[in-house]
Structures are given as structure tokens and as C-alpha cells.
């Protein structure tokens, strides 16, 4: 389904298209120049071949071969200035670690060490030149040791650089690196205040900023009210017309209801763009008790998620951040929660009050924009997008604040079932069957402190989340 075009995104705002942007840092040293004239140029061509082989998974910037500390620091600085998402380190020959330790340990870019060599097999035809070209393994050991001692997180990918498996693993790291950088640039807008008494969403904002990256930005409800009032009528009509072309619109919805909803959606997005926020959270009481609003922005959350914004209800900054990371890591992050367990079906009913990324909707049923009564918030009926989740493999992830600088990611893989409709349920929903079964999954989820808000992505994404955790120092707990 198409989504309306977004304004040009500011750093950290809605998801930007395109592959991860990665720098390739090839390391060697001048020791072999006299022994093998032209070795630097020879190995530079090898680095270029590696980047060309991986061109389908990332956009590559290949630095000239690094032969000393100044080369390394200049190359990494240029990667950072170019706004790249990560650095893939490749040993072109043995390179002493102390010449690159400062550059790598001081960089904010996620790192991966590609433990590869030009030739996949040792051959009887090799001479000393071939031995030198293919001796990167002990440079990788030296450099990895330095990074471990410096407590710098990094990923390792060992393998034949021409194999599909190597490309798949580098692609997984590159996507995780992009998500990590996006989190470090992220601002999460909170409209009003968090839900009183809800403890698993509370977090020390300083620790969140320092360890994970997101900055919390409070937006007053009054700013939303003023922005809504100032929107041009043409923009409101354009959004309503677009909804008519994409959704099955409930005929019971009045023009007034739809216009008010459209103004809320456009107002929220405009405020997010102006404040550089790529994710946000609203709490129904913060909207309902304000006194100036007619209804809650349910459908707005669904379409803004479909456009790439992170979202969570009830002022939950942790969940909004991980939904945003889900967009960047795996595509189409979806905010949800576990509503009820179905023991006979060994599954869990997933839903929330009315928000959900409709890009995860079944393809054989229309997404409906409905008139929907809702007692929560004490306001008028909020237009809501109703759909069932698309059946197939799926992954849940919950970001947990453990206190201080300790964070944990609880991850469950499983299947969204092709189950029966629930006609009385007027909000996005689906049944998730964990691979470990309801009992095993929930026992482990609760022991790990998994929160009640989470992100869902289609596909089996646990390994992607695991790499992200290795790059950030977040504890990874599969359940």
C-alpha cells in the first residue's frame, strides 16, 4: 500500500530509504614494500573486489590502504564526517594493532572485523608472496585483542568473502550498524506525560541517552492544539482523499470526525519534523485530560508507523525507541502488546488500544478505517485502522531498563497464525505462537523482565537483534 510522501527528514526523524552506508578500512603495513614491490596497490585492488562483491547489501566507501596510525585516524575521521553507518575492518596483510587502536576505539561508528583473506584455500603453488597476501588472520587476532582490552564492542565475521553466507552475515551486521547509528541520533517526542503507575516503561533518560542513544523531548499538548488549528484546509482534504484511495472507509464516519483525525495526524507529524523526532509516544490521559481535544489520535499512530516513525502508547519511550530500531533493522516495526494467552492454541493474542503498523496487515483483506467507540480517555469516538496481522514468521523484541547503565533486549521468534476472525475486536490484532510455546516463552519472558510493550517485525529476526546488542552492549536474552 502506498503512503503519503513525507517531508524531507531531518537527522533522526522518520526512516530514510536506501541501503546501509559502510566504510571499508583495509589495514596493512610498509614492512613488506621492499620484499614485494607493488603490494600496496595489489591489496588495494583486493579491498575493492571485496566491496564490489558486497555491493548488493550496502553502499561502500573504500579508504586507501591504512599503513600507519595517521592513515587510520584520517580514514575513520572521514568516515564519520561522511555520516556512514559503520566500519568494516579488513586485514590486507598483517597490521600491528597499536597503529589502529586509537582510531577504532575512539570512533562512535559500529565496528565489524572481517576475518577473511584473498584466497579461500591454501594451495601447493603458493610462494612467499602468496603467504604474505593471505596472512590477515593474525592481524585480525592482534586487532581483536586490542579492541577487547579497550572494551570496544564489535562484530566478527569469518569466512570466504566470495560466499553467500559471508555476504548474508555482513548484511546482517550492516543493518544492525545502521539501526545503532539511528538510535544514537534519535529524539523521542513525548506528548504530555507518561502513564501514572506503569513501571516497566520508566527509564533513567540520562542512561538511555548514554548507552542506547535516544534523547527524550517533551512536547506540550498545547503545541499540538495550536498546530492543528493552523493547518491549511487543503492539506487536510488531501490526507482524507488519500485515505479514501487506500483504506476501506466506514460510511458512518462523519466529515467532522475524519477532519479532526486528519488534523491530529498532520499536526503530530509536523511537530515531530520541526523538533527532529523520529519516534513519539502519546498517553490517552495526557490528551483526554487536557480539555482541548475531541478524540485520541489512533489512526494517526498507525499511518505514522507505516511511514517509518517509531511509536508507543502511554508515554513509553523504551518501546517507541525499539519500534524505531525495528524499522531500521528489519523494516516495518509494529507496536503491540500481549493481550491474552490462548492455551489450547498455544498462542498469544497480540493487540493494543487501536494503534498498529498497517504495513503488517494481511494482503487478502482490506485495511478498514472505522468508526469505533472507545471509553478510554473519555473522548469522542476515534477513527481507527482495523486489520489482522499477516500470517507467517515474526519476531517480538522488548527493551528493558534494568537500572543504571544496564539494558536488556528480550526476543522471541515464532509465527503469526492464520486464525479465525474476532468480529467484536475493533483494533489491529493477530495470534502469535512462540517457537518455545506459550508456557516456555512466557516463563522465560517474565523471568527476564520483558516489558508489556514491544516491537513486532515480520520474519525471523533474532540474529539481527543479537548483532545489534553486541554492538551496543545491551544484554541479549532469547526466550
TrEMBL record:
Gene3D superfamilies: 3.40.50.10940. Residues 333-475 form the L-arabinose isomerase C-terminal domain. Residues 204-325 form the L-arabinose isomerase central domain. InterPro entries: Ara_Isoase_C (IPR024664), AraA_central (IPR055390), AraA_N (IPR055389), AraA_N_sf (IPR038583), Fuc/Ara_isomerase_C (IPR004216), Fucose_isomerase_N/cen_sf (IPR009015), Lara_isomerase (IPR003762). Residues 39-181 form the L-arabinose isomerase N-terminal domain. GO terms for molecular function: L-arabinose isomerase activity; metal ion binding. One of its GO terms (biological process) is L-arabinose catabolic process to D-xylulose 5-phosphate. GO terms for cellular component: cytosol. It holds the Pfam family Arabinose_Iso_C. Keywords: Arabinose catabolism, Carbohydrate metabolism, Isomerase, Manganese, Metal-binding. This is L-arabinose isomerase.
